[in-house]
Amino acid sequence: MCSGKPALTIAAYLWLIMMAASARAEQSVQQGRVLSHTSPIGGSHVTLFLAGDEQGTGESVLGSDITNRHGFFRIPYTPPADPNAVLYLIADGPSAAVRFATVLGAPGYFENVTINERTTVATAYAMAQFVVDGRIGGRSPGLQNAAGTFRDLVDPVTGRIAAVLGSPPNGLQTSTMRTFNSLANMLVGCVRSPNYATAFFRLATPPGGNAPDNALQAAVNIAHYSWWNNSLLFYASLIYSPYRPVLWSAPETWALAIRYVGSVPDVGTVPEFGGPGAVAFDPDLPQGVVADDAWVFDIDTGALADSAGGGMSIPWGIAVDGNDDVWVADFGGQRLTQFDGATGQPVAPEGYPSDALERSIGIAIDSAGNVWLCNTGPMTEMDSAQTNPSGDGLVVFIGLAAPVKTPLPGPPQQP
């Protein structure tokens, strides 16, 4: 009897060793650095969060660390089981005004990151509809799409301008990159001067609201009310301006707009988008659909699927039904086309032609499955496909689509 006890003890000991080794193997490490432009911010409390599944709530703390004098941090953590989970980092301090952030996206996506003014602006704008009091949360796939948009603004690893924002057709071809850098410069003063931070927070106070008390919330307020105090905020952006290039005159709004196109064509070739006329989004999938030649455009990768066909000549209006099928109004072909939401292929090879249609543009699907199209005036010998819409009627295809859910708006809200 006694001889069996040591064997059991040894077996249990070996089991514990195996479990500990397995736990260590499952651990991940999130590393990075907190900077103000190129200057390290030591003494910052950095927290790694798992985003919640509702707006601004339900987040979980996965780990934390304090930056050393060089701004470096290291956070061991156990990754969540959900491969589509969104992780983010909040860096607080050393003063209360300094709250910076960055979005990591899926677990293990970026093991070494930079947190600075640019990543904070990108977080505020990309997550504008998902962040409340510094807490990020939202439903899938919207939250995942927002994380993809974040990476179009800033490189999470270096904290520099992302390739999408910094290259044509964006870059110096539009004012968005300059606007983004000017926004980042507004946050620099939160690190360098308490007096600046106080004055800046007054400017970033929303209409009828409370003044923010940290840089992240100030940036979120500007994203929400991009038209408010625009001239005064512009002057604030000039006080500290290490990020370049910048705006040299006050914008009408601090909204950020990015151009998305297909592959940049070679000289003499036709671009993948040739006069896109509408865009719609499947509520259950992380991709958009653009009505040009009915391309499917992946938001996160920027990739375009092949032209969908369906008998269309000049696709214009676009909508998504309750089964995630895509419906396109054909401006030039007197037809309605349906694409399977799973395969992207036309359901009816030549669509649904009708002599009730003239030149259809707008399209919507109601809760009864009726497909409504704005029917503009008929083509004449004097007209071309480029003339402005005319006409005075609607055409409805009865019960053709899967019904969409009726929106349930909440009570009226005031800013």
Write structural notes for this entry.
Helix content is 23%, strand content 24%. It is of the alpha+beta class and 415 residues long. Strands 1, 2, 5 and 8 form a four-stranded mixed sheet that branches. Strands 4-3-6-7 form a four-stranded antiparallel sheet. Strands 14-15-16-17 form a four-stranded antiparallel sheet, with no helix packed on it. The N and C termini lie far apart (77 Å). Mean pLDDT is 82; it is low at 1-8, 21-25, 381-386 and 408-415.
Task: Please describe the topology of this protein.
Elements lengths: L3 H23 L1 E9 L2 E2 L4 E6 L9 E7 L5 E6 L9 E6 L6 E7 L6 E4 L1 H10 L4 E2 L2 E2 L5 H12 L9 H4 L9 H17 L1 H10 L11 H10 L5 H10 L38 E4 L5 E5 L3 E4 L16 E6 L5 E5 L4 E5 L12 E2 L5 E7 L5 E6 L16 E5 L18
Parallel strand pairs: 1-8
Antiparallel strand pairs: 1-2, 1-5, 3-4, 3-6, 6-7, 9-10, 11-12, 12-13, 14-15, 15-16, 16-17, 18-19, 19-20
